[in-house]
Structures are given as C-alpha cells and as structure tokens.
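Record 1 of the preview.
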Amino acid sequence: MKTILHKARTRGHANHGWLDSYHTFSFAGYYDTERIHFGALRVLNDDTVAGGMGFGAHPHDNMEIISIPTSGDLEHQDSMGNKQVIRQGDVQVMSAGTGITHSEKNKNRDQEVEFFQIWVFPNQKNVTPRYDQRNFTDAEKQNKLLTVVSPIGTDAGGVQIHQDAWFSLGNLDQDFRTTYTLKNKNNGVYAFVIEGDVNINGQLLNRRDGMGITETDSLHIETISPATLLLMEVPML
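->
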C-alpha cells in the first residue's frame, strides 16, 4: 500500500472577498508540481461564496464536474437550458464534453453557500454534454458509505459520470468501523474528511485532511469522532 497525505493546512488558498477557496490540487493561482492530480481526480476545491455573489457564465469542455453543497443554496444555470438550485444533501454532475457554458451563484443574499467542486478527467472525449442531480437524505448516509457517483451504464446508484469512478459519502458516528473494498484493485482512493476525525489504514485524518491510497484492495476505517467522510475511487492514469 502507498499513501500520500495532504493535511488541511497545506492546501492552496485564495480569498477574493466574495469567494474563499481552498485547493487540494493545483488550481488557478495555486500551483504545486507535486499536487497536480490524483489519478483521474483533477480538482478538489472547498469553496465558500458570499451572499448574492457567484461565478459568472464561463466555459468548460472534456471534464466531469461534480458539486456537493454542505450548506446554503447554490443556483446553477447552463447553456443546455438547465436552471436548478443545489442544496445540502444534493449531488450534481455536469459532463462538459464537447463544451458547455454555466454559471453558479449564491441564491441567498443573507447567508453564505459552502460547497465542494470536484473535477474528474473523463474516459471519453467530446461526449454530448449532460446534467444530472440527485438528493441523498441523511438517513441514507447514516453509518454507511453510500454510493453517490458511479460510472455511466452501471447500476451502482448515484449520479453517473464518464469515468470508471465511484464516490461514496457517509455520516458516521463516533467509534464506527467499516471496510471499503475497491471496485477495481488497480484504482486508487482519495479519502477526504469533510468533518470529524477518522483513522484510515492506520493514518489519522482530521477535518479537511485528504489522503490518496494506492496498491491496496481495501480500506479499514474507524471514526475517532462523529465524521462526514467522502471517498473518491478513481483510475490511476
């Protein structure tokens, strides 16, 4: 087993006033040659957007873009005609494919919106752009690792992307123990602790810490405190 540890304090950081963003991997003005991507996982941004503010219309292509809000209401609009509000409990995916333009803004003026924006390299280029969004209740994620993202064409559950990748999300009680078995032993898993303290294969991870794990077929997980954990299993390119 090989691991790479990214403590929360080592992330890139940019505060633009209206946007406070932490970057696990190189993004915009933050560049680290050792932290470009983890396999097919290219971007993991931890964003807080001020009330009434947001990202104006901008283009993407050939990327799978996943948004996971943790508080507030994020309004999405795109060139495919979608206009949706994404809230805590929702997972949204946009396959940019041949090209798409979209905007994201905080729907509320009196509170911040917090969300994770995650980019995954696709396994097919120039696909037809697509949009999907699903809500997952707290009960569905309680003391289990619920599949919230899976490959297109599978019946694994969750929203689907053009990549052999599986994201799992769990709200776990203190002293909860479980084992995560990889879908493909050649993949790697990037574990990210949204809240709490978790021990994974002997490594203690605290709030907003991340760790990439490769060359293993399973993860042994034990929570030290109540925790919200995101696992991202991806091909190692």
